[in-house]
Amino acid sequence: MQSKPIPRRMCVGCRLMRPKKEMLRIVRLSNGDVVADSTGKVSGRGAYICPTEACFEKARRIRGMERALDTEISEEVFETLRKGIQTSDA
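The structure corresponding to this sequence follows.
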């Protein structure tokens, strides 16, 4: 019997494919807000990022999250997302 394939997603920072469960999902909601989605079930356009500070900084520098979500992201939202990544790192 064949095992079920593991879903993989590409990180918007380092551009590596990793299992979906190991990554953090960032979502642009229908009202334009950008939030972290810990459940993976929030409705909206999503992008995935490795839960590391290095990938977050690279995604910010190359504007990977903004391109993937097709929206501008403010500094306040970036700081909120950074705090979420730092707490998942610990």
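The radius of gyration is 13 Å.
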